[in-house]
Amino acid sequence: MKIFRFLLFLFCGIQLVYALPPGFVYLSAVDSEIMQEMRYAGYHNFIGRPVSGYKSKVCILTRQAANALRSAQRELSRYSLSLKVYDCYRPVKAVEDFVVWSRDKSDQKMKLEFYPHVNKADVFKLGYVALRSGHSRGSTVDLTIVSIPAAHQPAYHPGVPLVSCDAPPGKRFPDNTMDMGTGFDCLDPAAHAMNREISAVAFRNRMLLRKVMIANGFEPYENEWWHFTFRPEPYPDTYFNFDVD
Q1: What SS3 class is residue 200?
Q2: Which of 20, 34, 188, 228 is most exposed, with minimal Cβ within 10 Å?
Q3: pLDDT the model gives residue 129
Q4: By mean pLDDT, which of 10-24, 62-76, 175-189, 193-207 is the weakest?
Q5: Which of 33, 37, 222, 224 is the catalytic position?
Q6: All structural domains of the chain
Q7: What gap in Å lies between CA 98 and CA 52, rounded to an integer?
Q8: How far apart are CA 124 and CA 131, in angstroms?
Q9: What's residue 1's pLDDT?
Q10: Which of these ranges, 114-123, 188-197, 230-239, has the smallest mean pLDDT?
């Protein structure tokens, strides 16, 4: 029996090592110091529930993108700062889940926080969500910056009172990150990278994130301050659909 259990342990270990497609890695295996708060595997996101295909709270990326993030992290760590990722590789089935959600007019439970000034039917047209997401190619990441030592991050519990994502940092959902002018996944013009209507401090923080990411090979997305894609992508024309697990 002991031999059987030992062999089973080895087999499971092999499965975990080789579960990802070639060229993909767990970010934690490349840099364990980068913080992770994988929003789509939980309830604190714009649809208010775990998204299809997200079975674990882990960040998966192409090896090239993960290595570039490690370089960005090393640069920030010299100033007692750290990256914090919210989303990485996103399976095609997750994007399809977003499409189904957008067509359900009755589901407005997360509107007050994540899209307070936008009609949910327009989130694709306005460029906040894509019908074919670059995340599905494995080299796009949503992230922010945290001061180290990191402050306590309160847990989100479904049903808590919601506050608009563009509210001042002391009023919107408490986050342990540097103020970027809005919360993550704020589907609103206030989240546009170069929006100057936010505070001067928040704009400087956005520019710091942008500068570090560009310096390490990432291209920003103007509609979302948190969204960056590593270039050149190793899989520019391939959209993957394996689970995040």
Answers
A1: helix
A2: 20
A3: 87
A4: 10-24
A5: 224
A6: 23-230 (3.30.1380.10)
A7: 9
A8: 7
A9: 47
A10: 114-123
117 known ligand binder:
no
97 to 49, 110, 209, 243: CA distances (angstroms): 11, 15, 29, 13
Res 19: pLDDT: 79
DSSP 91: -
Parallel, antiparallel, or unpaired for β 35-36 and 81-87?
A: parallel
Task: Report the C-alpha gap between 139 and 72 in whole angstroms.
Answer: 15
Q: Is 222 a catalytic residue?
A: no
- SS3 track for 103-163: HCCCCCCCHHHHCCCCCHHHCCCCCCCCCCCHHHHCCEEEEEEEECCCCCCCCCCCCCCCC
How, if at all, do strands 60-62 and 35-36 pair? unpaired
Q: In whole numbers, what is the pLDDT of the chain averaged over residues? A: 93
DSSP strand pairing (224-230 vs 218-221)? antiparallel
Question: In degrees, to the nearest 5, what angle opens at C-alpha 134 toward C-alphas 60 and 40?
Answer: 50
> Tokens for 207?
């520019």
On whether 135 is known to bind a ligand per the annotation, the reply is yes
